[in-house]
Write a structure and sequence with these properties.
- The protein is of the alpha+beta class.
- It has three domains: about 1-140, Orthogonal Bundle (Arc Repressor Mutant, subunit A), CATH 1.10.10; about 145-235, Winged helix-like DNA-binding domain superfamily/Winged helix DNA-binding domain (Arc Repressor Mutant, subunit A, Orthogonal Bundle); about 255-285, no CATH class.
- It contains nine helices and 13 strands.
- The protein has helices at about 10-15, 20-30, 50-55, 65-75, 145-155, 170-175, 185-200, 260-265, 275-290, and strands spanning about 5-10, 15, 45-50, 80-85, 95-100, 100-105, 110-115, 130-135, 165, 205-215, 215-225, 255, 260.
- The protein has a three-stranded antiparallel beta sheet, with no helix packed on it. It has a three-stranded antiparallel beta sheet with strand order 3-7-6. The protein has a three-stranded antiparallel beta sheet with strand order 9-11-10.
- Strand 10 and strand 11 (about 215-225) form a beta hairpin.
- The chain starts with a strand and ends with a helix.
């Protein structure tokens, strides 16, 4: 079975917000449940149980539900600042300040919480074209640093390049650090070093980093990264299984998200997986129908 995938718009990946690791896990577990092959409204409920979180983190804590409930309550109060340019281009930036969720329901007897995303948040999770980032939920499930999860997302956004340079001032704003760690040595010690260590330990990426100066002042961080050699790679739905002696067998997958594989294979762009292609075709079909109305 293909592992749960987290898919976010790049605007949300680069947004300014602060969540604890527990709050991040709730959000990511729900985002991984969002269907992109059918219309989604802000009335849809997404459910996360203490057992889900325990399995995700390989934890056996008896207080998992209490931690889940407290994190969900805090999540209701969290804000996210999203900055985009009008119509995706132009020189004028627009900033949207919104919440992640509009309501949360506790089901204590079931050890779970249910939530609804805000209406403003849905476009950044569902109406995705080419500007989105995808990764497996398990890539970050065991990270205990919220900065590690955020940094990992910023790196996989540039997965194809294997390198990303970020301005320290911008990164501090994205992480909403405020007045914390004003000295660059403290910022590196308490934010960057632990984040990179956790990414290297728990994710599919191996990361190295350096700094760049503007004049005599350190202003940018430069991250270089590459995929680790997987010990047990997950076979994609579009992968071709091997028979005896390593001979290829014909894939039994005939469609993804209701789209025939023949069309997906014909429409795939360089560097796209078949799943990426299927999601793009769905979005293009939705846009075409919207223009016809």
């Amino acid at each position: 079975m293909h592992p749960p995938q987290v898919i976010k718009s790049n605007a949300l990946i680069e947004a300014s917000y602060r969540l604890t690791p527990a709050e991040q896990r709730i959000m990511l577990a729900c985002i991984a449940q969002v269907r992109r092959d059918q219309p989604i409204t802000d009335e849809v409920l997404y459910s996360v149980s203490a057992a889900d979180i325990a399995k995700m983190t390989s934890s056996h804590s008896k207080t998992t539900y209490d931690e889940l409930a407290k994190a969900a309550l805090r999540l209701k109060r969290r804000e996210v600042w999203l900055t985009e340019r009008a119509n995706g281009s132009g020189s004028h930036e627009e900033t949207l300040v919104t919440g992640w969720v509009q309501s949360i329901r506790y089901r204590k007897h079931e050890g779970r919480v249910e939530l609804r995303f805000t209406k403003d948040m849905l476009p950044y999770l569902t109406q995705l074209t080419e500007q989105f980032t995808r990764y497996a939920l398990e890539d970050v499930a065991k990270m205990t640093s919220s900065h590690a999860i955020r940094l990992y997302e910023l790196l996989v956004q540039w997965r194809g390049a294997g390198r990303r340079e970020v301005e320290i001032t911008w990164l501090r704003e994205a992480f909403q650090l405020g007045d914390k760690y004003p000295a660059i040595k403290d910022f590196k010690r308490w934010v960057i070093v632990p984040a990179v260590e956790q990414i290297n330990e728990h994710s599919p990426l191996q990361v190295k980093w350096d700094q760049r100066k503007t004049g005599r002042r350190v202003t940018h961080l430069v991250f270089s990264f590459a995929e680790k050699t997987p010990k047990r790679p997950h076979r994609r739905p579009d992968a071709t299984p091997l028979g005896k002696g390593g001979k290829s067998q014909k894939s039994t997958v005939t469609a993804l998200y209701g789209i025939k594989m023949a069309l997906i294979q014909k429409s795939a762009r360089p560097g796209e997986t078949y799943e990426d292609t299927a999601l793009r075709l769905l979005d293009e079909a939705k846009q075409s129908k919207a223009l016809e109305k």
